[in-house]
Structure formats: structure tokens, C-alpha cells
Design brief:
The chain is mainly alpha-helical. It is 60% helix and 4% strand. The strands form three sheets. The protein has a three-stranded mixed sheet with strand order 2-1-7, with no helix packed on it. A hairpin with a 2-residue loop joins strand 4 and strand 5. The longest helix has 37 residues. The chain is globular. The two termini are 31 Å apart. Keywords: Membrane, Transmembrane, Transmembrane helix. Its main location: membrane. It is a multi-pass membrane protein. It is found in: Membrane.
Length: 614
């Protein structure tokens, strides 16, 4: 059966097809100013100038995020005297919770506050959390006694442990920061994309470049965190390092508010969760109704050009998930007194369908997040055993994660001059590759990255044992350079560029108009679930591969020269390959919203238009 079109009166019943990412779709939502009034002269608002104010906010947020993700593990271990594995798991859980809770920020933005107000509130909360962490690192009463606590005592766990209230304070400040990030992350990319005119002929090109520049700002923030913040910590201490993150966040907040007169806004469309629940309840109530019943008036939609959902254009009907269409079936007995828990519009039903159809794509990126999380901690452990000198310059181990950022920066800089022209010749796609193709390229490259990590780790471990470093796992081996890690880092950077940028653009364009923050939250939730999955995987491996009674170390032993990180990397390689196969299947099944031919089928009733609900 072909797909179906449900149109309002006055529109011709014809089959239409729109290219992926086209801006030619009719009845676009008109942007409004901060007071909710339609903007008549778009030339005075939005565009790249407004986007750059938003880039600054994202750069500072990402700098704080990566600065905490790398330095907090070391801070908990060396200052709060937590075991290194417990520190890594605590930070992983923090990162996971802060990303998964992005659903809350996206809900508030799409339902009530709008993206601008949500960012403004949560970025202030973020700053409060960073100030709290800075106080923890600055005021000695918040940390345990540091006397007689050298490197050996730390490794053996003989240093004074932090008091419960001290850990409570640190966790409170940390999770306030995570709560602030939860409101920023799902909104900032969508709010930036809102600054471009959907009716412009260059809209798709601007959107494509925006998401690349957006991720470039993320990368710059990461590079500063992995270099500048680490340098400040080494030279001036933990208080100065965390204080610099708070100062950067404060400056970015000021710049974000300065740009307020330039921003274009979208009206919040009311609670998306309520609309989803109404569709599910209404379809369940009418589960025994048939599309061919003589008691039906038709599929319900309001008349005119606009939908019943504030901030959303009408969505054409599709033939996916036919069971949900029953929520829009209008019965003769319902008359004019319509109950939204019994009858929903076609657009409302299509919103739910879109949310369901989008799920498999970000779900397939969870595995990439697992790999990123594992690399963030395990590769630093590897670097401690290697020579990090470049000539006479010794690079701090905690700076090693900067290399994926540098590779991302280089790739994004060359993206339009090199990749797009080359791939355009191969694929024929005007932008080099479609959004899903870019996500697939990223997932494929991540497999190569983790496979190389397994190969090198096996070589590194054998080299350590053969050269008498089996026990000295904190002593760098002068004859084996840490820069062999650059191969896996650079491959991972390439994977991030293609996968994450393609995913963000895909979710923004494919999500319903009034649910774009929730669409962006899908990516953040996938990242958070990846952090949790990494922690669960580590716990399973530690319990399944070690035996303390027999003196058998786990794969994730503190002494990585007796552990088997190479086995873990091979497990990740296998899981990544299976995940890639699932993604290929899901991508082939997925149809872009613009590509779906829309025409009415014989087995569906006509649209029933009732002006009462309008």
C-alpha cells in the first residue's frame, strides 16, 4: 500500500514528494520575538551573528563538562582519596545522569518555557554548581587531611578518607552542575538552528554548516579543557582550575544575554508528554474500531493552514503504525463535543509516530558513547606507562584526550574543502553524504578505533612484561612512546565528527516542530546511557574475570600490566560491529519525512474536519 496524505479542505489531493532536508515544505512556523510577537523583518534578527552568541555559551559549557570529566576523576582520587575505580565510576554516573536528565530540560523548553528561557535558567544553575566545586577545591575544610599522603600511600589506599559530609557536599555541587547541563544540552543546538529562515533557499546549506560549526565550538571547549585547564591545575592548583571553569561560564552567560535582542524564538507547544499520552489512550480506547466502519466520520484534523498545536505546522498523514491512527478516528456518536483523550488530530498522531521512528537511530549511537567513556579513563591509564615526551617537552598524561579534539578540529576545518567534494563524486549527494550516511561512517570508524586500541594494548602489555615493568605500572617506559595512542584517538575523533554532527542535524530536521528540543535530547540521552552501560560493563567484567581468593587479577586490574585491557577492547570491537549491523538495518528501513510520498489510500477514511476544535 502506498503512503497516504490527509489534507485540509482547499488543498488539492495529489501525490507530493520532497527531497531530504528541503525547505520547500509549506506552512512553515513563523518565528517570534522574546515577547511572543511574530517577527516581521527577519533581516534584523537571527542568522550567523545570533548563532555566534550561542556558540560561545556552548563552548563554555563543553569546556566545563570536559574539564570536570577528566579532572574530577583525578581530584576524587588524589584529593578526596577515593579508589581510582570508584572515582571513575562516580564520574561516569555523574556524566550519565546529567545527560539522561536532558529529557527534563527538553520537556520544559518544548512545553512551557521555550528554548531561550530554559537555557537562561539552567546556565545560571550550572554556574552555581561550578562555584560550589571551586569552593570545595579551595577551602580546606571540604577535603580530607592531605598530610603524609604521597603517591605510594594513594596507590595503596593508606590516605585519610573523606568524611561523609565532605563527599555529600562535593556530590551536591557536582549534581547541581549536572542538573544545569541537563537544561542546556538539549536546547542550545536547536535554539541555534532556530536562528535560520526555513523558507530561505540556502536554509539546508546554512543548517548543515551550523551543526558543523556548533560541534567545532564543542571541540574548542574540549581542547581548552584538556590543555589550558590541566596546565592551570598543575601550576596553580585545583581551586584555580575549577575557578577558571566557573569564570568562563560566567563570561559566556553574559555574552548569551547580550545577544538577546538578536534571537528568534519558537512558541512552546504545550506539554508533549500529555499529547503523547492522549494519542496512546485514545488509540487504546478505539482499538476495536475498524477503518471501514460505517460509524466513522473520518480521520480528524482541524481546518485551515495551521495545526492545533502551538508552534507546529501540520504534518501529513503516513501509513506507519496504523494502530495509532485509531486515535484520530472520529465516530458519528462523538458529535461536536470532542474530548482530546478520545479523539486526536492527525498531526498529533503523526508527532508520536515520528518520535517512535526516530528512536532506533540515536539508540545505535549508545555504543559509540560506551567507547568514548572507556577511552576517557582507560587510555589515560595506558599513557601513565608510556613516554609522553616530545623532544624535551613532557606532555601531562591528563592532556592526552586532547588529541581526538585536535583531529576533530582539523577534520571540521577541511570538511567542506576536502570531504564534501570527494564524497559528492561518489554518492552524488549535494552535501557529500546524507545525515544517516554520516552517522554510519562514524560508527564504522569507531570500530577501527577500538580494534587498533586492542592491538596496541596487547603490544604495550607484552613490552612492559618483557622489559621488567610488570609491577611498575606507574613508571613510564622510556622506549615506548605514548604517541602510538594517537592512532586510536584520531580515529575516534573522525568517528565523533561524522556520527554526532550527523545525528544532531538528523534529529533537528526530522523531529516534529514543537518537539525539537526532545529530538535533540535523544542524542544526549544516548550519550548518558552509554556512560551507564560502560559502568555496568566494567562491573560485569571485574566480577566475571577476576578471583581475589586465587590471586587472579581482573581484566581491569589497577595494575594494567597484569590486567587485560586488550580483551576488553576486543569485546568492545565485537559489540561495536554488531551495533553497526543493527544501525545499517535501521537506516535502510528509515524514510526521511520529506521523502515520504503522500497520497490517500482506499482503505483509509477521508479527513474529518471539525471547526469546533479549531
Amino acid at each position: 500500500m502506498g503512503s497516504l496524505e490527509i489534507k485540509s479542505p482547499g488543498e488539492c489531493m495529489e501525490t507530493t514528494s520532497v527531497e531530504e532536508g528541503s525547505s520547500d515544505s509549506p506552512h512553515r512556523v513563523v518565528p517570534v520575538d522574546i515577547h511572543g510577537k511574530p517577527i516581521t523583518d527577519l533581516s534584523k534578527t537571527g542568522g550567523w551573528i545570533a548563532a555566534f552568541f550561542i556558540f560561545g555559551n556552548e563552548m563554555a559549557e563543553r569546556m566545563a563538562y570536559f574539564g570536570l570529566s577528566v579532572n574530577m576523576v583525578v581530584f576524587m582520587f588524589s584529593v578526596m582519596h577515593m579508589p581510582i575505580n570508584s572515582s571513575a565510576n562516580a564520574v561516569n554516573n555523574f556524566l550519565g545522569i546529567s545527560q539522561v536528565s536532558s529529557v527534563l530540560g527538553s520537556f520544559l523548553a518544548d512545553a512551557y518555557l521555550g528554548r531561550y528561557k530554559t537555557i537562561a535558567i539552567f546556565t545560571t544553575i550550572y554556574l552555581v554548581g561550578l562555584i560550589g566545586i571551586t569552593l570545595c577545591a579551595t577551602v580546606s575544610v571540604f577535603v580530607p587531611n592531605q598530610e603524609d599522603c604521597d603517591q605510594l600511600s594513594l596507590a595503596l589506599g593508606h590516605c585519610e578518607s573523606a568524611k561523609p559530609w565532605q563527599m555529600m557536599y562535593l556530590y551536591t555541587a557536582l549534581y547541581i552542575t549536572g542538573f544545569g547541563a541537563a537544561g542546556i544540552r538539549p536546547c542550545v543546538s536547536s535554539f541555534g538552528a532556530d536562528q535560520f529562515d526555513e523558507n530561505s533557499k540556502d536554509y539546508k546549506s546554512h543548517l548543515d554548516r551550523f551543526f558543523n560549526f556548533f560541534y567545532l565550538s564543542v571541540t574548542v571547549g574540549a581542547i581548552v579543557a584538556f590543555t589550558g585547564i590541566v596546565y592551570i591545575q598543575m601550576q596553580h592548583g585545583w581551586g584555580a582550575a575549577f575557578g577558571s571553569l566557573a569564570a568562563a561560564m560566567g563570561v559566556s552567560n553574559a555574552l548569551f544575554f547580550i545577544g538577546t535582542p538578536l534571537y528568534r524564538h519558537r512558541l512552546p507547544g504545550g506539554s508533549p508528554l500529555t499529547r503523547v499520552a492522549q494519542v496512546l489512550v485514545a488509540s487504546f480506547r478505539k482499538r476495536r474500531e475498524f477503518f471501514s466502519s460505517s460509524e466513522l466520520v473520518g480521520l480528524y484534523e482541524i481546518p485551515g493552514r495551521h495545526s492545533a498545536i502551538k508552534g507546529s505546522a501540520k504534518i501529513p498523514h503516513t501509513d506507519d503504525f496504523r494502530c495509532l491512527d485509531k486515535a484520530a478516528l472520529q465516530l458519528k456518536e462523538e458529535g461536536t463535543g470532542l474530548n482530546p483523550w478520545r479523539l486526536c488530530t492527525v498531526t498529533q498522531v503523526e508527532e508520536v509516530k515520528i518520535l517512535i521512528k526516530l528512536l532506533p537511530i540515536p539508540a545505535c549511537t549508545i555504543m559509540l558513547s560506551v567507547v568514548l567513556t572507556e577511552f576517557l579513563t582507560l587510555s589515560v591509564q595506558q599513557a601513565y606507562t608510556l613516554n609522553t615526551h616530545i623532544g624535551r617537552l613532557k606532555l601531562p598524561v591528563t592532556c592526552m584526550p586532547v588529541f581526538p579534539g585536535l583531529s576533530i578540529f582539523l577534520i571540521l576545518s577541511l570538511y567542506y574543502s576536502t570531504f564534501v567534494p570527494l564524497s559528492r563524486r561518489i554518492t552524488g549527494h549535494p552535501h557529500g553524504a546524507s545525515q544517516l550516511q554520516r552517522v554510519g561512517i562514524g560508527l564504522a570508524v569507531s570500530i577501527l578505533s577500538v580494534a587498533w586500541a586492542a592491538i596496541f594494548e596487547r603490544y604495550r602489555r607484552n613490552f612492559a612484561i618483557e622489559n621488567g615493568y610488570k609491577v611498575s605500572f606507574l613508571t613510564p617506559m622510556p622506549n615506548l612512546s605514548a604517541y602510538w595512542l594517537l592512532i586510536q584517538y584520531c580515529l575516534l575523533g573522525i568517528a565523533e565528527v561524522f556520527c554526532i554532527v550527523g545525528l544532531l542535524e538528523f534529529l533537528y530536521q526530522e523531529a516534529p516542530d514543537a518537539m525539537r528540543s526532545i529530538g535533540s535530547a535523544y542524542a544526549a540521552v544516548a550519550g548518558g546511557l552509554g556512560c551507564f552501560a560502560a559502568t555496568i560493563l566494567n562491573n560485569i567484567i571485574k566480577s566475571a574475570t577476576g578471583n581475589e581468593d586465587e590471586g587472579k587479577p581482573t581484566w581491569l586490574s589497577l595494575n594494567i600490566n597484569t590486567g587485560r585491557l586488550d580483551y576488553l577492547y576486543w569485546v568492545l570491537t565485537g559489540l561495536s560491529f554488531l551495533n553497526f549491523c543493527v544501525f545499517v538495518y535501521a537506516a535502510k528501513k528509515y524514510k526521511y519525512r520529506g521523502e515520504q510520498a503522500v497520497k490517500r489510500g482506499e482503505s483509509y477514511p477521508p479527513t474529518a474536519v471539525n471547526p469546533v476544535r479549531a
